[in-house]
Each structure stands twice: as structure tokens, then as C-alpha cells.
Amino acid sequence: MTTKTASPFTPSDKVNAFNFRAFADACRDALGEGGRGPDAIVQLVTDAIADLGALKAGLPELTEDETLLHMCDRVTIFAIRLTPGLLYPPHNHFMPVVIGLYGGAETNITYDEVDETLVSTGKKHLKAPAVHRLPEPAIHAVVNEGQDYSEALHVYCGNLANTNRNVWDLERQKKLTFTEERYFGLSQQLSA
């Protein structure tokens, strides 16, 4: 399980391919002064996943769990590929997040922190194509209960790398500072 930064890529020269650069620019502009904010991101992601063939032609091939596609002060965009049967641990972002699931399925489990203990507050099952805006402020875990890898665009309304955030060890009910190593190290295979 790893995160990869996409090597610089240009929009595909295939006819009608999704233009990722234009998408990233539109997301950045939507989150700038005078932009419509996260509501505009929901619409941009909805439009992006509407044409699966064009989207896949315009993105790099996903081979890692997470591929960083774009990051600036206003927006961070990842392509996420969830491994079947793996529960990724609860974590937070401290910013609005829009998920555009365009392949497979995923379940988001939300939590509240009550007296330093995580309490599950609900589940949202998504099956592609689907767009979901995480509630704010969100603590969530994610799992792919399907048989195949899922594929999604995750658009974070801020610079995720410069945000101090948390990950939780559910077994020990312990809140930790988020690191990629902890996040993947706390991921668990679901019981059969």
C-alpha cells in the first residue's frame, strides 16, 4: 500500500479525453475568492465522472492505493484505488472533501469523538458512479467491501500536505498524528 505522485502528465491527445489540467484549474478557481466553494466542487466532480471512457483516457493508469494528481494552496486532488477487503483506519482532514467514485464500490464510516473515544455515527455505501461530500468536520474510515479495486477522484478543499491531522488506532482507541506510514500500517483485512 503506497502513495505515488503522478509524474507530470499532459492531457491525453485522445479525442474527447478528460482534460485533467482544466479540471484542476476549475477546482482551484472554485475555491478562490469569489468562487462557489465546495458546492462547485461537487458539480465539477459530478461532471468529471459522467463520462467514464473520457475520464480514464485523461488520467494516468492507477497502480497504487493513492496517486497524487495535483496540489496547491487551495486544492489537493488524489486518484484513490481501494484494495478489496481492506479497512482503512479512521482519519480526519479538517477541510471539505468531495469523492467522485467512478469504479467499484466503497463504504464511508463516519465517527464522532466523544470523551476521547470514537463513536460510529453512520455508514454511506457508494456504488459507481457516485459523488459524496463528506460531512464537516469529518472523521471517517473507508472500506471496499467489493471484489474488485475501486477507483475514485478525491478532491480536498485545501492543501492536505500542510494540514496537521489525525489517524485513529481503533483497537487501542488512540488518536495519533497522521502519517502515511501509520495510515497504511493501521489498515486491516476484513474477516471472511
Q: Quick one: biggest sheet?
A: 6 strands, mixed
Spatial strand sequence of the major β-sheet: 1-2-3-10-5-8
How many distinct folded domains? 1
* Beta-strand content: 35-45%
Number of DSSP strand runs: 13
Shape: globular
Number of helices: 4
Question: How would you describe this structure in keywords?
Answer:
alpha+beta; six-stranded mixed β-sheet; 4 helices; 19% helix; five-stranded antiparallel β-sheet; single chain; Jelly Rolls; 13 strands; 192 residues; globular
Write the layout of secondary structure elements.
Elements: E1 3-5, H1 20-30, H2 38-49, H3 52-58, E2 66-71, E3 76-80, E4 86-92, E5 97-103, E6 105-114, E7 117-127, E8 130-133, E9 139-143, E10 151-156, E11 166-169, E12 174-177, H4 180-185, E13 188-189
Parallel strand pairs: 1-2
Antiparallel strand pairs: 2-3, 3-10, 4-9, 4-13, 5-8, 5-10, 6-7, 6-9, 11-12
Helix pairs in contact: 1-2
Tell me what you see in this structure.
This protein has four helices and 13 strands. The chain is α+β, with helices and mostly antiparallel strands. It has one domain (3-189): Jelly Rolls (Sandwich), CATH 2.60.120.10. Helix 1 runs antiparallel to helix 2 (38-49). The radius of gyration is 16 Å and the shape is globular. The chain starts with a strand and ends with a strand.
